[in-house]
Amino acid sequence: MTKVIAAIDDTPAAAPVLATAGALARLFDAGLEAVHVRRNGHTTATKAAASAGVRLDVPGGDVVESLVAIGARPDVSALVLGTREAPSAARPLGSTAIELIGAVEKPVLLVPPHTPALERIRTVLLPLEGTRETSLAPAGVLELARDAAVDVLILHVLDEASLPLFTDQPQHETEAWTTEFLARYCPRGLRSVRLALRVGRPEETILCVAEESGVDLVALGWNQRLAPGRAAIVRAVLERGRLPILLIPALAPEEGADRPHRTLATLTSNR
Description:
Number of helices: 9
Shape: globular
CATH class of the largest domain: Alpha Beta
Number of strands: 10
Distance between the termini: 4 Å
Number of domains: 2
Low-confidence stretches: 252-271
Largest sheet: 10 strands, mixed
Strand content: 15-25%
CATH superfamily of the largest domain: HUPs
Mean pLDDT: 79
CATH topology of the largest domain: Rossmann fold
Helix content: 25-40%
């Protein structure tokens, strides 16, 4: 069986991380463990893990190096950690989270400290650009939940330049375009998959749809580059969103179109 690892710190932010990690583990039918890389103490982390009934490992060493090593283990399917230590923190995304999401080649679920306790993940918002690089990876990972009672809302945001050109029968052509899009990119075997089309700025639209739809989780494929001028959508959703964000690494096009399926095979190999 694969494992979901909750990486918790020694603050009250550990509780929502553990709760959300438990929901993700149930979604993927995986085991759950917690880890706290010891720096100054682990009293709060130990109490939080005990309250959640989760085994806690307390290694020493550098936080990022330790968590990257844990994430690389073949039995680990995903890491879950907080975006920052407290809602009042000056930075919306902590330095540890920033380093980890660029270094761990597994899905990483980031949990804001104000996230309500989440028992189960029932609805997932899956924004898709419609490119193989960033669309197939999250769809492939969500196929892991094919036996779960989860509803997926796929969101495709168009700007005026990318609106499909429909002719004299827009109702039929829109339906055909939607069917083709879902067949190409949507997760297979899930209970419910719907497609929402919107026009606007992707980062703003994703946040609005997530709030108005009442989803439990947002899943995004990305290329793991947070340099200035890159990953604007990921950065905006992480900084302004109030929901857990599942970031799923995608390969660059030159690395081959079959990577999402290799990632899926890796995640399911020990189920």
